[in-house]
Every structure is written in C-alpha cells, then in structure tokens.
Amino acid sequence: MSQRTSGILLHPSSLCNAYPIGDLGPSAIAFVDFLVEAGQHWWQMLPIGPTGGGNSPYQSSSAFAGNPLLVSPERLIKQRYLSLQDITAPILSVSGSVNFIEAGQWKVSLLVAFCTFLSPYAARARASIIASRISSLIAP
User: Fold this and answer.
1) Backbone angles phi, psi at 35, to 5 degrees
2) Strand partners, 8
3) How far is CA 85 from the centre of its chain?
4) Domains: count for the chain
5) If phi over 0 gives left and psi between -120 and 50 gives alpha, with beta otherwise, what is residue 50?
C-alpha cells in the first residue's frame, strides 16, 4: 500500500518578494525549502502560461508559452543578463493584491532590457515586437 503525502496549492504569482508580483526566482526556491522543512511532498501550481481574461490562469492564450510575469529579475541579474541599473523601482501593491497591468508593464521593461543585452544591433526592433506581444498578453 502506498503512503499518503500532502502538499500545497499555490500559484507562483502569490509568492512574496520585493516586486509587484511573485515569480520563479529566489522566493520560489525559498518556498520549496519551506515545503521540505515542513514535511510536505508536493507543490501544486495553477497553470503558469500567459493569463487570459481577468488574469485567470485557466484562460491562457497558449498551452506552451510561459507567463512573462513569472520571469525573475534576480535571476536575470545573477546570470548577468541585466544589471541593477536596468531595474527601476517596482510598483508595490499596498492592498495585498496584484495590479497585473502595472506589474506587466514593469516586467515588459525588464524584458526589453534583456532583449537589448541579447542583440544590440537588432534590439530596438526585436524589443518593440516582444513588448507589443507581451503587452497584448497582459491587457485587461
């Protein structure tokens, strides 16, 4: 007979960090460490694709794409894709809920800086295209 196990259901956007929305960075690793210390065995996530209407993870526009809001600024800095100068002051939520539009606009600016790092020659055109695609994913 198999042994019963337990876990937690939590979307990464609910993780606490210094930015306007939780992501798959150090706070996610800290959460997994917490689960291990607490004797939990499973971290069940809601779908992590781009959100659809009402920012619902169940109305994704793609079954294969990742959600750009879950990109970790800390990991981009640690891997030297961005510098601290690339990160402007984030919009922090006072109400305890995420303002997805403002969080998305802030993350788009980070991803544009990342695209600039990848290809300085074609960066403006590519960054503009990527920014417009990401913006369409986070539009209300």
Assistant:
1) -60, -45
2) 43
3) 20
4) 1
5) beta
Tokens of 106: 């802030």
Whole-angstrom distance, CA of residue 56 vs CA of residue 47: 9
Nearest to 17 by CA among 115, 107, 130: 107
Residue 1 belongs to some domain of the structure: no
Structural domain range at position 54: 7-138
Q: Is residue 102 part of a domain?
A: yes
For each of the chain's 140 residues, which pLDDT tens digit applies? 678 899 999 999 889 888 888 899 999 999 999 999 999 999 998 888 888 777 787 888 788 888 888 889 888 888 887 888 777 766 565 666 777 778 888 888 787 777 766 666 555 566 666 666 666 655 55
Hey, which residues does 9 pair with through a beta bridge? 44
d(CA 56, CA 134): 16
